């Protein structure tokens, strides 16, 4: 009999640094090192953990959130960029697969983005949440179908969705049909209250059962001091407590280790990959239990850029332009390479 393949997974529940991206990245890198020291081969962080989840948008009306939204822009992650290079270096140093949720800045728009780094440091997946939820629509743009993709990594076939994307059964099915072995779920944590934690648990356990895969879920944490800083109004602070359900679920829908629902910590669990076959032998939703001649999914997985050019833009010698035209050309180039945003 073939030797059972096992993967040691770590789900991280820690608080961000609400002052700077650099501060949060220090915590990310420290957690990667700590998890790797415990033998982890896969390390998962919460939704948009870097620099921080936009909690302010949940407890304050849009007219009062301008300054915090701008601050989020100023601290957001550019991918690729210095923050992603630091994570890639850590993944390579410790030989671990890392999944990090970030606020990604692409010129004038922020996105809720999930980054999957392989154990050699390669960025295997950069996907954007396809539909921001409720208050989040004032913060982030929408992703496209190109991110609904399962990627091969050192720990197996990995897919990812963020938060309420798990309430979109077709998005989940798109990953299931690509035979994901380990599903990464990321939620903000410290939000809505205990009912949110209950909903998260139901959602991730159901996906594990339906997909026949492991689910590694990470939620964030806020300290009381951070809650008070985000929300000076005491009656509203209850909206920023609870809602934590960091957990690691087997293909049989069971917690492999007790979940982490409060405080900071790192869950460690060994994934027995033979349980995937054991589950799918009974019920394979995209195999012998499917009826594709009756029900199937159409997925447009093309990128959706705002500009599709039939041919490259022409370049001409600088001396052939007037000063006004040359200035306009420099401005366009600045827009294209991002220097104008800086």
UniProtKB/TrEMBL annotation:
Protein name, UniProt field: Nitrilase/cyanide hydratase and apolipoprotein N-acyltransferase
Family as reported in the entry's similarity comment: Belongs to the carbon-nitrogen hydrolase superfamily. Nitrilase family.
Record key words, sorted: Acyltransferase, Lipoprotein, Transferase
A single MF term (Gene Ontology): nitrilase activity
Pfam families: CN_hydrolase (PF00795)
Keyword check for Lipoprotein: yes
NCBIfam families: nitrile_sll0784
Boundaries of every CN hydrolase domain copy: 7-273
InterPro entries xrefs: C-N_Hydrolase, C-N_Hydrolase_sf, Nitrilase, Nitrilase/CN_hydratase_CS, Nitrilases_CHs
Signal peptide: none
């Amino acid at each position: 009999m073939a030797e059972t393949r096992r993967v040691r997974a770590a789900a991280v529940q820690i608080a961000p640094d609400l002052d700077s991206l650099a501060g949060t990245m220090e915590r990310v890198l420290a957690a990667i090192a700590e998890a790797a020291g415990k033998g982890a081969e896969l390390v998962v962080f919460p939704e948009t953990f870097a620099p921080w989840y936009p909690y302010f948008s949940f407890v304050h009306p849009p007219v009062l959130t301008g300054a915090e939204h701008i601050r989020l822009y100023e601290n957001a992650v550019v991918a690729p960029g210095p923050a992603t290079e630091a994570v890639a270096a850590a993944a390579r140093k410790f030989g671990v697969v890392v999944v990090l949720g970030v606020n990604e800045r692409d010129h004038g728009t922020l996105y809720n983005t999930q980054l999957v780094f392989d154990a050699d440091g390669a960025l295997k997946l950069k996907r954007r949440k396809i539909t921001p939820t409720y208050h989040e629509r004032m913060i982030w743009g929408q992703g496209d179908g190109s991110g609904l993709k399962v990627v091969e990594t050192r720990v197996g076939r990995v897919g990812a969705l963020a938060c309420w994307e798990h309430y979109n059964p077709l998005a989940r099915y798109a990953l299931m049909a690509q035979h994901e072995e380990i599903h990464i779920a990321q939620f903000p944590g410290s939000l809505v209250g205990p009912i949110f934690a209950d909903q998260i648990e139901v959602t991730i356990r159901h996906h594990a059962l339906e997909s026949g895969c492991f689910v590694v879920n990470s939620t964030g944490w806020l300290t009381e001091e951070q809650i008070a800083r985000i929300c000076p109004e005491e009656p509203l602070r209850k909206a920023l407590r609870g809602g934590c359900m960091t957990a690691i679920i087997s293909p049989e829908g069971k917690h492999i280790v007790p979940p982490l629902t409060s405080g900071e910590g790192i869950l460690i669990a060994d994934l027995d990959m033979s349980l995937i076959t054991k589950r799918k032998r009974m019920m394979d939703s995209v195999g012998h239990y499917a009826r594709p001649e009756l029900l199937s999914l159409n997925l447009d997985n093309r990128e959706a850029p705002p500009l599709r050019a039939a041919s490259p833009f022409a370049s001409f010698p600088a001396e052939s332009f007037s000063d006004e035209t040359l200035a306009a050309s420099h401005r366009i180039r600045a827009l294209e390479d991002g220097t104008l945003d800086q």
